[in-house]
Amino acid sequence: MNYEIKIASELNIKSHQVKATMDLLDEGGTVPFISRYRKEATGSLDEVQVAAVRDRLQQLRDLDKRREAVLKSIEEQGKLSPELKKAVENAETMAKLEDIYLPYKPKRRTKATIAREKGLEPLAERIFQQESIDLEEEASQYINEEKEVKSVEEALQGARDILAEWINEKADLREKMRKLFLEEGNFTSKVIPGKEAEAVKYKDYFDWTEPIKTAPSHRVLAMRRGEKELFLMLDSCPEESDALALIERVMIDSQRSNESVEQVKLAIKDCYKRLLKPSMETEVRLLTKKKADEEAIRVFAENLKQLLLGAPLGEKSVMAIDPGFRTGCKLVCLGPQGQFLHYESIFPHEPQKRASEAGMAVKGLVDKFSVQAIAIGNGTAGRETEAFVKSLGLPKSVVVTMVNEAGASIYSASEVAREEFPDLDLTVRGAVSIGRRLMDPLAELVKIDPKSIGVGQYQHDVDQNALKNALDDTVMSAVNGVGVEVNTASKQLLTYVSGLGPVLAQNIVEFRNQHGPFKSRSQLLKVPRLGEKAYEQAAGFLRISQAKNPLDASAVHPERYALVESMAKDLGASVDDLVKSEELRNRINLKNYVSEQVGLPTLQDILDELAKPGRDPRESFEVFQFEEGVNSMEDLRVGMKLPGVVTNITAFGAFVDVGVHQDGLVHLSHLADRFVKDPNEIVHVNQKVEVTVVEIDIPRKRIGLSMKSDPFAERGKKMEKSAKPAKKEEPQGSMAEKLAMLKGKFR
C-alpha cells in the first residue's frame, strides 16, 4: 500500500509532506521537534497534522500486519485463489478484511459444523439454488439413523443451519448490514424493572430511543455506563423487518416462489437472530464506543492543554494554605524557585477558633519570608480562609488568590511527592503543591496523573490506552511549547521534553546535582546516555537562562547557531547585539540566508525568537476575586450575577466555580446569546467569566448558570406554550442530568 498517497488524500495535504513526515518519524523524530524544527521538510505541517500522519500511519501498518496474517492462514488451508488474494489485498478497512476472512477463520464446533458431519451440505446446496423441487422427497434421502438424522424436519433443520452460516459469512451482505445498523439503527435504553430507585441518576435513559448516527459522545457513554452498572438494558439495532428485508433482497431470487425459497427465508430469520444481529450489534457498539471515546478524549485533551498553559505567577516568594476547619489550615512558605522553607498549622476557624493567634502567625511569616503572594486552596474552608487572610490588613503588594486544588491530594500521596519530601506529612505536601501550582501550573501539574486533575468527561469509561496516548501528547505539546529551564526543572517536567523520557530526565537531574548548573546546551552531551539523536530532539526546547551564549536561553536550535552568528557577522555585530537591537534585526534580509537545508519558515522563526529569547508564551497572571459574601450555596439567589472561573468543559456546556464549593453548569444553550455548537468556541479552562444564577437546588447540590445577556427572556415564551403538549425532553437538554455531573456521577 502506498501510505503517503492514501494519507495525503485523507488529510488533504501533499504526498511529499506525508513522505517527509513518515521518514522523520521513522528516524525517531517527535511530533514537537518535527513541527518546530523541520518545517522545510514537511511544508510547515503543525503538531496536529504531524500527529495525524503518525496515527494514521500506525493504523495502516496494523492493517497490513493483519492482512499478512490472514493471507498466511488462508494459504495454509490451501484455499487462497488469485481472486481471494486480490480481495484481501484490496480490503481498505479492518472490518472489510475480517468479513473476507470470516469463512476461512478457524471456528469452534457450530450447528453448521454438526450438520455437515451429518452429510447435509448437499441438501443445503440444493435448497440454496431455490429451484422448485419436491422438498420432502429430497430431504428424505438424508435420513440416516447412524448420523442421527431421524426425520425430514431434522434434515431440513440441519440444511438451514448450514444456510444460515453461509448467509452470515457473505462479505457484501455484512457490509450492507453494517451500513444499515449505523445509518438506520437506534440506541434503545430501558431501566431494568425494580431498579428505578437505585438508578435515579440515569432517569433520563429509563425509556429513551435515539438514532445511532446522531447520538453524541456523552449520551453513548452514559447509557453504556448505566448498562455496565446493571441499571439499564441497552439495544442498538435497526427495525428487524428492515434488516430481514435487506437480507432477502440480497439472498432471495425475487422471480421465484416455492418451498426452497421458504426454507431460505427461514434460514435468513435464524441467521439474523442467532448470528448476524449479535455480530453486527457487537461491531456497531465497538464502532460507536470508539467514536464516543475519541470525542470524550478530545474534550479532555483540550481542557487539559488549557489548564496546563494557565498563566504562571512566576518566581515569587509564596505562602500556600491548604484550608480546613476541624484539622486546621496547613501553611507552607516557598522560595522563588518553589523550594520548601517553612511549615506550620493554624486554626482560624471553628471549632478551635484561634483566629488571633493564626493572624499573628500569617503576618509574621509574610514579613519573615518576604511573601509576595498567598495561594489558598479552593476546597473545604477555602472561601472562609480567603476572607480571614484578607481581613488581616496585609500590605497591598501581597497578592491573595484562590487556587484550584484538584489533584493536590493525589500528588501528596504519590511516589513523586515522597521522593521530593520524604520527611513531610501528606497534608504538607498538598499545601506545597497548591503554592507551586500558582507559581507555575505546568511544572506542577505534570507530576499528577491527568485523570486526577478534574477536567475530563467519562475518563474512566473510555479506552485507557487511547486516553493515555492523547494526554501524553497534550502534556508533551504544552511542555515543549513553553520550553523548560534545564537548571530548575523537575525530573517529571524533563520527562516530557522531546527526545528525553524518564531515564534521560533522571540522568540530567543527577548530573546537575553532581556538577552544578548547566552552563551551556552543549554540556548536555556529557550527560550519561544522552547521545546526538536525543540532543537533536531536545536541545531546542531546553533553556539555560544564565548561559554565556544568549541563544541557549532561546528556542533557536543549536544546529542554527552558526547561521545566526553569520547574520551578526554580516552586520558587524555580535549575537548579543542582535538580541538587544531591533534596528539591527530589521536590517536582516532573510532571503540572503535561504539554503537547501534552511528556508524562510525557519529563518522567520529564528528572527522572531531573537526578538523575544526565552519569553514565556503563556498569558500574564491576573488576580481573580470571587464575590465577597458569597461563600456557600445558601448565599446564592436566582438572578444574582457573579464572577467565576471555568473549571471544566464538556460537550454540553461548561462548569464554573463561583466560590461556593460547588461548581455550577452553564449549559450549551446558555453560553451565549447565539446558537453554540461547541463550547470551546466561547470559553476555555481557567477563563474568568461573569455568570447569572438561573437555578439552585441545594438538596442535590446543583447550580444552573447562564452567560446570556438576558437568561430569563425565554421563560415568558415558554410559559405561553405550556398549554401545548410537550415534546419528550432530550437528555442533552436536561439541566438536571448535566448538573448530576457536579457530584461526579458520570465522571
What can you see in these coordinates?
The chain has 747 residues and is of the alpha/beta class. Among the domains are: 102 residues, RuvA domain 2-like (Arc Repressor Mutant, subunit A); 184 residues, Tex N-terminal region-like, CATH 1.10.3500; 122 residues, Nucleotidyltransferase, domain 5 (2-Layer Sandwich), CATH 3.30.420; 111 residues, OB fold (Dihydrolipoamide Acetyltransferase, E2P), CATH 2.40.50.140. It has 31 helices and 15 strands. Strands 6-5-4-7-8 form a five-stranded mixed β-sheet, sandwiched between helices. A five-stranded mixed barrel has the order 11-12-13-15-14. A three-stranded antiparallel β-sheet has the order 2-1-3. The longest helix has 50 residues. It is globular. The C terminus is likely disordered.
Helix and strand arrangement:
Layout: H1 3-11, H2 15-26, H3 31-37, H4 39-42, H5 47-76, H6 82-90, H7 94-101, H8 111-117, H9 121-128, H10 135-140, H11 152-168, H12 171-184, E1 186-191, E2 207-211, H13 217-228, E3 232-237, H14 240-251, H15 259-308, E4 318-322, E5 329-334, E6 340-346, H16 355-368, E7 373-377, H17 382-390, E8 399-403, H18 408-412, H19 415-420, H20 426-439, H21 441-445, H22 464-482, E9 484-485, H23 491-495, H24 502-515, H25 532-538, E10 542-543, H26 561-570, H27 575-580, H28 582-586, H29 600-611, E11 641-650, E12 653-657, E13 664-667, E14 688-697, E15 702-706, H30 713-720, H31 735-739
Parallel strand pairs: 4-7, 7-8, 9-10, 13-15
Antiparallel strand pairs: 1-2, 1-3, 4-5, 5-6, 11-12, 11-14, 12-13, 14-15
Helix pairs in contact: 1-2, 2-5, 3-5, 8-11, 9-11, 11-15, 12-14, 12-15, 13-15, 14-15, 15-22
GO cellular component, one term: cytoplasm
GO molecular function: mRNA binding; structural constituent of ribosome
Biased composition (Basic and acidic residues): 711-731
